[in-house]
Amino acid sequence: MRRIVSEIRKHREAIALISGLLLYCVLASLLGLSCPIKYITGISCPGCGMTRSLSAIVTLDFAKAWYYHPLIFLLIPVIPIVYFLSRRHMFRERKAVIIVVGIIFIAVYLYRFLILRSPVLVFNPENGLISIIVRKAIAFFR
Questions:
Q1: pTM score, two decimals?
Q2: How many of the other CB atoms lie within 10 Å of CB of 132?
Q3: Which of 6, 51, 90, 91 has the greatest number of C-beta atoms within 10 Å?
Q4: pLDDT tens by residue, 94-115
Q5: Quick check: 28 and 48 in contact, CB under 8 A?
Q6: What is the 3-state secondary structure (H, E, C) of the chain?
């Protein structure tokens, strides 16, 4: 039992992060929360669909998870890998993994946006908060 408690204490940051992400996914799903980047800009980010994808995995709907964001299946093993590389002070290796995953995210984002024209992704800058504020400011100062 002491060994289990010791292991939990050793990895409490990772456990807290995973628990927080799962809690966010559940609350986002229940409350209908949207992506703050999409809300502000009106444009989906490369991670768009990730929360819905993770929510689908929690309900064991893997096809829906793939539909919302296929890279969730890459990200799930990569997060613990990056965490353990950090714990072992293998910072160059961690940086390389993060860069490769970032490049893959950008490539998949462009593919989903430009070629697949995924309905999950949105490009409506005129509906973003920034655009709305600018339009109201221009109307106010006329």
A1: 0.66
A2: 13
A3: 51
A4: 888 889 999 999 999 999 888 8
A5: no
A6: CHHHHHHHHHCHHHHHHHHHHHHHHHHHHHHCCCCHHHHHHCECCCCCCHHHHHHHHHCCCHHHHHHHCCCHHHHHHHHHHHHHHHHCCCHHHHHHHHHHHHHHHHHHHHHHHHHHCCCCCCECHHHCHHHHHHHHHHHHCC
HSE-CB of 117 using CA atoms within 13 angstroms: 0
Q: Is 117 exposed, middle or buried (0-12, 13-18, 19+ CB in 10 A)?
A: exposed
pLDDT tens string 11-55:
777 778 778 877 876 776 677 666 778 878 888 888 888 878 888
**Confidence at residue 100, expressed as pLDDT on a 0 to 100 scale:** 92
Encoded tokens for 95: 């940086």
